[in-house]
Amino acid sequence: MIIVMRPNATHEEINHICDKVRELGLTPQLSRGVHRTIIAVIGEDEKLMVKPLEAFPGVDSVVPIQKAFKLASRDFRAEPTEFDMGGGVTVGGKKIHVMAGPCSVEGREMLLKTAEAVKQSGATFLRGGAYKPRTSPYAFQGLGEEGLKYLREAADTFQLKVVTEVMDPRNVELVARYSDMLQIGARNMQNFDLLKECGSSPRPVLLKRGLSATVQELLLSAEYMLSKGNFSVIVGERGIRTFETATRNTVDINAIPVIKAESHLPVLVDPSHGTGKRDYVLPIARASIAAGADALMIEVHPNPEEAKSDGPQSLRLPQFEALMKDLKVIAAAVGREI
Question: Is 64 exposed, middle or buried (0-12, 13-18, 19+ CB in 10 A)?
Fold first, then answer.
């Protein structure tokens, strides 16, 4: 249920409505748009029937939200969400951000070399896994906190933001200490305890789509974090599992305009995990920007042949530089910039 306030509603009237909602045992969430304020009410809609809120000063209407994902829907917020991460980095605006780096943090020198190169090419985020969920328990699992320290050092050295994966609700505070954005990977998209913990964190969150998840399921997972008060969420398309075996996954380009039509949240695409092959990363990255993506995540490694994970899909440093030059042209053609 949403309460639409009149364009001229005062702060006192808005606060009064929020107080009344809390008295009913419900939770109000404010969305201040360009022309009016909307208050989403979280909880049992039936409780709203106790008081005729339409009669309160400043209220224009009380409208039920039919979507299952209420706070993530366009009904709650018509304008696209933008969130400021400091240092001139705003996610969801005109600028398309590129998050680049190795799949796994393998060592300090390698990471510093990669960070310097991706920064020079125009990336704004350094990506890399300190904790790596792997299909095999015998595969490289990451360096843990040591890897987080390397990420923070490399990012600070070259003025980049850090995005890295958190896998366990107990590690959210630790990972947030070293990162600027928390990543929830595809395998954890419906780890509801993790979603709630990240929703209570002050850090923005990148939520990746699950291997076989629908768009609605992805947005419902985002809803967990929004319902906890964290609206700095970007949802990520990284390919879904289909019958096709020519690529690692099938990148759902359709999901970009669908999510943007249904939700106000910004959208990221990961063509590296989506295709699993470096030769396909460039065309899918181009298509993603043309379709309206707000960010890209690209795996880059100085020596992919020696990578401890995802070497076949990792771009070499010169390839990433060439990719960024191409993407700047595509971005300009659709009224964006990189």
Answer: exposed
